[in-house]
Amino acid sequence: MVINPDGRLKADRLLLAHEFTHAAMSTLGGGAPTWLVEGYAMYVEQRLAEQSGYDEDVADWRDELMSEAIPKLTVLPIDGVFHGEYDEESYGVSWIIVEHLVTKYGLAKLNALYVDLARGDDGPVVREQVLRKHLKISEAALVAAVKK
Ligand SMILES: [Zn+2]
After folding, report:
1. CA of 129 to the centre of ligand 1 (A)
2. CATH architecture for residues 12-147
3. Measured in angstroms, how far is the CA atom of residue 21 from the centroid of ligand 1?
4. How confident is the model at residue 144 (pLDDT cuts 50, 70, 90)?
């Protein structure tokens, strides 16, 4: 991993935690959908923020996402809709989805899901199969569960 010295002073430890998460997970393969790749890195970043005294900011952002962006969620934010449909909230929406998975299924199950998705093809059929294998639910059911 290379950090541009010009950007180092602007890159705080939360951003570095996010980027190092990508570096660590990238060895698993490139098949994981964008919502999981970014949501996982956001989950690590927000956990570190909570442990660093920013827990109120994290809670405020979660509340904002749950009242504004999450009710508008219709599909999991994959490549084509990651930036467009959810604008700058794509990262936050993906974080909420991953946090839901950790809360409901646990980190070990999420990691197993990530491993399987990362080594497969990033296509709708594979994603649906892997989700059903690990979580026993469809993508549509996951969207509905996150919105509850
Ligand atoms: Zn990222």
Report:
1. 25
2. Orthogonal Bundle (1.10)
3. 8
4. very high
